[in-house]
Amino acid sequence: MPSFRLGLIALLLLPNLALAQDKKKTVEQLAEEAKDSIAVLLYSGREGKTQGIGTGFVVTEDGLIATNLHVIGEARPITVQLADGSKHDATIVHASDRKFDLAVVKIDAKKKLKPLVLGDSTKLPQGLAIVAIGHPRGLQHSVVAGVLSGKRDIDGVSMLQLAIPIEQGNSGGPVLDPQGRVVGVVTLQSRETANLGYAVPVNSLKQILDRPNPVTMEQWLTIGALDKTEWKTMYGARWRQRAGRILADGAGTGFGGRTLCFSQRKAPDLPHELTVTVKLDHEGGAAGLIFGGDGGDKHYGFYPTGGKLRLTRFDGANVFSWQILFDQKSDAYRAGDWNTLRVRLGKEKILCYVNDVLVTDLANPEYYGSAFGLAKFRDTVAEYKKFQIGPSVASAIVSPDNRLAFEKSLAKIPLEGETAAKALTPLLKNPTQSGMLLRDKARQLEKQAEQLRLLAQRVHHERCLAEMTELFKAPEEKVDLARAALLLARLDNEELEVDFYVAEIDRLARIVAARLPAKTKADSALQELNKFLFKERGFHGSHSEYYSKSNSYLNEVIDDREGLPITLSVLYIELARRLKLNVVGVPLPGHFAVRHEPASGKTQIIDVFDGKPLSRADAESKVKKITGRPAEDDDFKAATKRSIIIRMARNLVNVAKAERDGDGMLRYLDIIVALDKDAHEDRWMRAYFRAQGSQPSAALEDCEYLLEHAPPGFNLDLVREMRAFLLKKKS
Q: CA–CA separation, 228 vs 158, rounded Å?
């Protein structure tokens, strides 16, 4: 009876509790109640100085703090200052999402924290009174009241539009409704007016809290960071690495915004050469090579600046100790484009080249030492690639014989209208060089520039097709699945360095292998791989941007640690192979997985999307949920490497179709048809898009092929109709 009475009392009190929760509060009350839950977030630069400040708020008692992803930066140490003034280093990036610009960090709280209540952003009325709390321009715990003025899509993301001023430092702060519930996270200010801002709806935050992708700070600091064994930076700014390139942005703390990045390699004896290919975001900037230095302020520098090429001797930390030795324009320099800088260092002379044209020399140089590397000045955003040093470095100059051969080949290729693939054969003998020469020609011949760029793309495309086809001539067990997946990604990114990412997979596998004692059992090795990939490195399935092309590019999945089930599976299979583990692909409809098949013992299905083991029953349930039909034995047969690449290409076809990208569809369909001659539906689709575009002759070839092979069940009347149309158009 007592328990019944207590339950009855509770039921009677529920309406009153609801009323209390729904009671509107004043701005003063909201600010007072929330203040203990608001945090200041700071991230440090490479020299330990605070470089960023933003807002966060407590979401759990044990130390989860929500904020914006851009507030915590990338590969930066993060400090959280609570309302009581105590400072705590973030130990884990518990969850993050680039699309929504959200992050949740974990701190080791010494006492229970006061979390804010998360509301529901699905049915927020326009005109709702709201309060935002943050630290604009470092003014901590500032409060501003306004209204929800609407909802807007910004870059494909639904955002709350707030009629309040947003300043630097507000980002990551909570947007509260009149009851004190969080309905949004402040993200950015309007470009149109200072009194308008935007917030990510709180339901997006709930989504990433439900699906965390934790990364320890030790691993977080390695994302995009330069390898400290290879590079040492000075004077701040932001140096990072991505896709085989070095990127630098932000003004350095040295005089003139100077920032330096020294190579840790040992310089060879004189004479020797060093080179780098560099691109500036604007010609008012400056960035290039440094050499002959003492590892500090003293060295030589050769770099473009203000559209000119400059050679400078830096004898100290400020401009009064610098000597500009050369500062002139060069016809060989390509403004707004990639330029290759090369310096030859000798005991008696320094020679400086741009794009292999000598621009200046310096007799009898006085070296401070052998330190060398990269430099950037002012607020320039610079990209560097193909950094080399050695007794001599490869030249970008095309020999007269090769240039003549190119001109003869080009003369036989029509520069207007459709170009047959077989006409490109001479150019494909050296596709990299051909692409460069074609682009040079495009700059010279303005009227033909667009057609020449198209030819370069075709050369690249045919090269990828040829390399992919060659890969699959090998027996199944010898096909390099990682290289094939990277070649597929390179269709859309000509500058993708395939060997760089193959080496990166090798490196990740070596890290895991180093942890395994001799004669480790297969199951133990598999557990170590899972721990490394999913828990330590935070590789996970993409929930918020599932249909992004990036999720199908193996290089971007490695960079961002996020992808589709099949792309993550390719990485997993390749890491397992390097660890001598027999892991195969499991082609579940709509949700690719992998299976460990040890020489003895039980097999284990692994759902790489969620980083968890998957029972056969759960896998069958997943198939039923996705397809509406019972699972079949064929769904669990080991996928061939050829079928995996075809399935990845079909995913890209579907994305390109949704984006109405006809050229993209043709690229991926070419891969599918090249790998599967019996892909008749894909060939027919390719014929249609070829006919719609500028490849009527190629479309006719597809029609002739289908009519010749007459695949069973195929509507050949449609093919004959298109063939007749194309023949009429051709005549």
A: 40
Q: What is the pLDDT of residues 252-273, one digit of tens each?
A: 889 889 999 999 999 999 999 9
Q: What is the pLDDT of residues 600-654, one digit of tens each?
A: 889 999 999 999 999 999 999 999 999 999 999 999 999 999 999 999 999 999 9
Q: How far is CA 613 from CA 526, 527, 593, in A?
A: 11, 10, 10
Is 390 in contact with 270 (CB distance < 8 Å)? no
* Torsion angles phi and psi, residue 289, rounded to 5: -95, 150
| Among candidate residues 114, 136, 124, 150, the one with its CA nearest the CA of residue 35 | 114
Q: Return the pLDDT at 192.
A: 60
364-369 own/partner pairs: CB under 8 Å, 24+ apart:
365/292, 365/300, 367/292, 367/300, 368/292, 368/293, 368/294, 368/298, 368/299, 369/292, 369/293, 369/294, 369/295, 369/298, 369/299
Residue that is written with structure tokens 């019972």 in the block:
630
How far, in Å, CA of 128 to CA of 175, rounded?
A: 11
Phi, psi of 598 (to 5 degrees): -70, 160
Residue 701 scores a pLDDT above 90 = yes
CB–CB of 647/676 below 8 Å?
no
CA-nearest of 174, 88, 77 to 130 is 174
Helix, strand or coil, per DSSP, at residue 375: strand
442 sits in the region (left: phi over 0; alpha: psi -120 to 50; else beta) called alpha
Helix axes 565-578, 498-515, angle to 10 degrees: 60
**Cα-based distances in Å from 145 to 21, 177, 244:** 20, 10, 46
Handedness of CA 670, 672, 676, 677 (dihedral sign): negative
| SS3 label, residue 702 | helix
Supply angle C-alpha 255, 261, 264, rounded to 5: 140
pLDDT at 50 > cutoff 60: no
β-bridge mates for residue 216, sequence order: 92
- Closest C-alpha to 118, from 64, 42, 47, 41: 64
Which pLDDT belongs to residue 3? Answer: 38
DSSP secondary structure code for residue 118 in this structure:
B
Which two three-digit tokens encode residue 443?
């700059």
Longest C-alpha distance within the chain, in Å? Answer: 103
Non-local CB neighbours of 415 within 8 Å, separated by 6+ positions: 448, 451, 452, 455
Task: State the average pLDDT over residues 352-361.
Answer: 94
Structure tokens, 500: 């760089």
Cα 407 to Cα 713: distance, rounded to the nearest angstrom: 48
Coil, strand or helix at 193: coil
* Residue 191 pLDDT exceeds 60: no
593 sits in which H/E element: strand 593-596
Phi, psi of 432 (to 5 degrees): -65, -45
Contact 557, 568 (CB under 8 A): yes
Over residues 426-455, the pLDDT tens digits come to 888 878 777 777 877 776 666 566 777 788
Task: Find the mean pLDDT for residues 152-168.
Answer: 83
pLDDT of residue 62: 93
For residue 492, is it left (φ>0), alpha (ψ between -120 and 50) or beta?
alpha
DSSP 8-state code for residue 115: P
Cβ distance 686 to 702 under 8 Å?
Answer: yes
Do 425 and 460 touch, CB atoms closer than 8 A? Answer: no
Is the distance from CB of 227 to CB of 252 less than 8 angstroms? no
Sign of CA dihedral 182, 188, 191, 193: positive
Cα separation, 421 vs 406, whole angstroms: 16
